[in-house]
Fold:
Amino acid sequence: MQTIVTSGVILGLGGLSSVKALSAASGHAEALLLTCMDYRLMEKIEHYMVRRGLRDKYDHIVLAGASLGAISDKYPDWNKTFWEELELSINLHHIKKVMLLDHRDCGAYKEVLGEDFAKKPKAERQIHAAQLNKLREMINERYAKLEVEMLLMSLTGAVEKI
Structure:
């Protein structure tokens, strides 16, 4: 028996094909949200999703750096985790959209890229846009029917579309 851990829930399965069998009973979510792990933003992220009308209607993946964490060569296991969680969200909850939510003043960006972009807001937006676009393209290659929304949050909780 294979065990899959997803969003803190452990599923004992007879194989990954069993995930599809469970999907009918698992319900639907509108989106999968990818965010950073930054403690400063957890409440703001929740408020943002509620304002969007998505309370209890989305799956949530948390990786340091959000889009950067999902594609960085520095953390290949995170890449694998992102794609596995995305596939589970599609199979279990029939999502139609992926929301990629990066944030300004991100420590993971400083760590992985070796520069503090927060001191240069235009450059910071550009580097986030580059990572978000790269991940969007990768998602679109694998899952052409999924809508991908790219977002950047400030530390105040304000969100802009990229």
